[in-house]
Structures are given as structure tokens and as C-alpha cells.
Specification:
It comes from Loxodonta africana. This protein has helices at residues 19-49, 56-73, 76-82, 92-125, 130-133, 136-162, 179-185, 191-222, 228-256, 266-287, 290-309, and strands spanning 9-12, 89-91, 171-172. With 310 residues, it is mainly alpha-helical.
Length: 310
């Protein structure tokens, strides 16, 4: 399939070609990326070191923060460096690796969000059997299945992309390698491939979003039987999850559930779910979660005490 491929590298146009705006892009997205790394790193370290955060919910939150970090890293560093360079070329193999990694960690995040919804459903609707159903072994198996599922999804995407011949032009009107911009550059009829790609990514996003929202409707409906204190705590957690789901799935559904046509706003919408959501997630889960905030305070107080003792 690759024998007919005459393109060895692609040119990424980025968000803008204007020098001043490119410097603004560099500063803002460098700060966003550093904020993403810091926020998610704090959550990862806090969950790993705190005994109070040993429940399945925080087990899944650990992997959500990990997937957020990797998802952002698959796109942001290259975008930040390219904002300072005049010649933004990316080799064919690097482009394919970026497609694979972005879709791998993006789909992993989707599957982790589904696992978090399952966890909340069991915790609220089956409280007496929660620890037996959501044991550490079960949670580990579910996360392993999520990793395998994300890998299968990404392999399908990359194999479909590699089946396309690229013989020029090689200019990608985007800031990272993604499927829709690459389909526009293929020198063959991409109708069937596009349908397969849309049915893969688009169906995963849409079906997962509908499943998640339906599950949270059931969960919120079941809260009427809980005490006022329990209802307040569960409601706070579920609202955090629902906000994350809407912020992540809204842009993804817009991008991946339509034919291979691009709109001027596509790049900004892609920025929202590749850069924005991984930055916002830690803020949502820390600002709305008293247990995480308390665990972070204890972690830093212990660190300050140990530093002073030295």
C-alpha cells in the first residue's frame, strides 16, 4: 500500500501564519501545557500517596489524569515548538505516530470515563455490594480492557490511513496530524475510507456520550432515595463527571461524526479537546472534590514538615 506513496513529509500550517499571532500561540499554549502537566501530576501523586483516596473512583481518576497527560503530550509539544519555527515539517512516519497516539489516548479517555460512570452507578445504586463488585482486581481488569480497546481502535484508524496513497500536495491545514485533513490530501476516492473512519471514531464518540448521559440520568434519579448528606456528596461527584463528559465529547462529536469536510472553526474546536479539556479536568476534580483537596493539603503539609526537619 505504501509503494504508491510519494510523500515523505507533510507541512503543518498550524493555527496561524502571522508572526505576532504565532508568538501569542507559543506563550499561551506553553502555559496551558505546563498547567496541564502540573494539574494532572498533582492528582497522580496525591492519589498514589494518599491512603484516603483508595476507592475505585480515585483508581479510575488516576488513569484519567494519566491519559489526559499523554493525550495532551501527543499534540501540544509539537504545536508549541512549531509556533516558533518557519518551516513546520513533519515526516510521514512521525505523522502516523501522532495519529495513532492522539487517537489511542483520546479513546482511552473515553473508556475511562465510561468506567467512572459504571463505578458511580454501582456506588449509588448498589451501595451494599459496591466493594465486592468494584474490587481492586475487577477495576484492574476493566482498565486493562480499556487499554486494549484503545489500542484496537487506534490500530484500525492507522491501518485505514496507511491504505491511502499520498502523492501530493502535502500541506496539512491543521496544527497536528489528524484523519480529516489527511483524507483531503489522499490522491484517491476517500468516500469508503471516510465512512469507515466516521463509523469508527464518530460512532464511538456518539454512542459513548449517549450511554454516559443515560447512565447519569439513572444515577441522578436514584439519588431521591438517599439521605440529604449522601445526596449532596453524590450529586457533587456526578456533576463533576457530567461536566467533563460534555466538555470532552461535544467537540469530538462535532469533528468526527461528519463527512470529510473542514470548517474554519475546526482547528479551534480541536484545541478545546486536545489542549483545553486535559487542563480543565484537574481543576474540575480538585475544586469540586473535598477529599482530593484535603489529601493534597496533607501531602504538601507533610512535604513542608519533612523539608523543615532537614
Amino acid at each position: 500500500m505504501l509503494l504508491n506513496n510519494n510523500v515523505t513529509e507533510f507541512i503543518l500550517l498550524g493555527l496561524t501564519q502571522e508572526p505576532v499571532k504565532r508568538k501569542i500561540v507559543f506563550v499561551f499554549f506553553l502555559l496551558f501545557y505546563l498547567g496541564t502537566l502540573l494539574g494532572n501530576f498533582l492528582i497522580i501523586v496525591t492519589i498514589k500517596t494518599s491512603r484516603a483516596l483508595g476507592s475505585p473512583m480515585y483508581f479510575f481518576l488516576f488513569y484519567l489524569s494519566l491519559s489526559d497527560t499523554c493525550f495532551s503530550t501527543s499534540v501540544a509539544p509539537r504545536m508549541i515548538v512549531d509556533a516558533l519555527l518557519k518551516n513546520n515539517t513533519i515526516s510521514f512516519s512521525e505523522c502516523m505516530i501522532q495519529v495513532f497516539s492522539a487517537h489511542f489516548f483520546g479513546s482511552l479517555e473515553i473508556l475511562i470515563l465510561i468506567l467512572m460512570a459504571i463505578d458511580r452507578y454501582v456506588a449509588i445504586c448498589k451501595p451494599l455490594h459496591y466493594m465486592s463488585i468494584m474490587s481492586r482486581w475487577v477495576c484492574s481488569v476493566l482498565v486493562a480492557i480499556a487499554w486494549v480497546g484503545a489500542c484496537v481502535h487506534s490500530l484500525v484508524q492507522i491501518f485505514l490511513t496507511l491504505s491511502l496513497p499520498f502523492c501530493g500536495p502535502n500541506v496539512i491545514d491543521h496544527y497536528f496530524c489528524d484523519l480529516q485533513p489527511l483524507l483531503k490530501l489522499a490522491c484517491t476516492d476517500t468516500y469508503v475510507i471516510n465512512l469507515l473512519l466516521v463509523s469508527n471514531s464518530g460512532a464511538i464518540c456518539t454512542v459513548s456520550f449517549v450511554m454516559l448521559m443515560f447512565s447519569y440520568v439513572i444515577i441522578l434519579h436514584s439519588l431521591r432515595n438517599h439521605s440529604a448528606e449522601g445526596r449532596k456528596k453524590a450529586l457533587s461527584t456526578c456533576i463533576s463527571h457530567i461536566i467533563v463528559v460534555i466538555l470532552f465529547f461535544g467537540p469530538c462529536i462535532f469533528i468526527y461524526t461528519r463527512p470529510a469536510t473542514t470548517f474554519p472553526m475546526d482547528k479551534m474546536i480541536a484545541v478545546f479537546y486536545t489542549i483545553g479539556t486535559p487542563l480543565i479536568n484537574p481543576l474540575i476534580y480538585t475544586l469540586r472534590n473535598a477529599e482530593v483537596k484535603n489529601a493534597m493539603r496533607k501531602l504538601w503539609s507533610k512535604k513542608l514538615i519533612s523539608d523543615n526537619q532537614r
